Please model this.
Amino acid sequence: MNKHIPLAMPVLLTMFIQFPELAYLNAQEPTDLNDPKYAELAYPPTDDDIPGGGPLRRNENQIKTWMTRRIHFANRGNQDNGAVVFYGDSITQGWGDDFRKQFPGVHLANRGISGDTTRGLLLRLEKDALSLKPKAMVLLIGTNDLADGIEPEVIAGNMKLLIAELKKYSGTMPIVLCQVFPSHPDRNRPADKIKKLNELYFNVVKGDPQITFLDTYTYWAQPDGNCVPDYFPDLLHLNEQGYAKWASGLRPILTTLRLMETEPKPFTPEEGFRSLLNGKDLTGWCARDNKTLEFQASYDGLTQTPDARFRAINNGITAATTPEGRKYQVIWSKEEFPKDFVLRLQFRASPNADGGVFIRKPQLQCRDYSIAGPFKDLKNYKPQEWNDLEVTVKGTTAYCTCNGEVLLDAMPVPESGPIGFEGDRGQMEYRNVRVKLIE
Model:
């Protein structure tokens, strides 16, 4: 008996009754799977001559699902050409073709197949994805490999092959690799195996600026490493709330890649405030020695720093995800502030991101607070959404709030110095930055 068999069909039907939001996994238009015109889409009869390692799933339900989905892709004709392609398994399939209306204005294509594995993605890459001439790729894959008992090292080897094929197709096309989501040992997906696989995935893409490695494990995981049932009703697949949360983690990344939110929302500073950004480039900002604050280089007229870490986007400064995983860097204002002032801005952090706002030199931690801390108990913080930060400096003391909640009520600061924004881990966005001098 093949040990690499997923849930039997009766169990799947029970899941659909108990969790109706998962019915999409078996929903597809009826078609004749034996029609000769679809022969090239058929499941391969053996694993021979297929790139990658680990066996393909060969139960009847998987073969039917594979064919049904691929025929669905073929029947969509040219409407998915030039799209941002989401490529993966049932969790990707679960977006549906309308992606639950979570990415307004973005041309998207769903190429997820329930039950698929890393080797399956390698097999169908050219026909199902690259033939669309994708504008970008979003990958989530590997959980089914683990459930089938395939070791993380083998799965990561398949991912390395997949990334190589994508880079062969285009050396500039953005690739977003999502970490494998947490699940549960009851679904044959123990936390230690998932963590190991995500570590190996990172090793595959580390240092590659073409790839954004998105932490989609930490913000789903409980302290024991297993998934949060409120988002994973069957301990594997997402519900509506889960997809909304995944979308909130992806939207900032797609914005930085200029795939959505390509036009800034109009913003006018409040009376008495003036903007520290011109809405076009990094004029007024510079590199300094982070210890001495000695001026090093001007970024006037540049839309991004020479290493592309800091970018002028949508009336803000984005500290993009570094290919190294984490790297401490700061961009500083040329202007220094010896007088009392009020600083206001909005920030948005990707999952588990770590950044900071520097006030005359000392750092106010500005992060994805709910995960990265240090202010984990905030009631008004909105993960992966825009949050309001306000800092009032009087003398050598700063009073700091986030969405009206106090972060620090007496932060010591020097008598004068610039404003700075940090990038460390993940992506941090800072926008609508303005100051008001207190006379």
The radius of gyration is 24 Å. Residues 1-21 have pLDDT under 50 and may be disordered. Residues 274-437 form a domain with the Jelly Rolls fold (CATH 2.60.120.560).
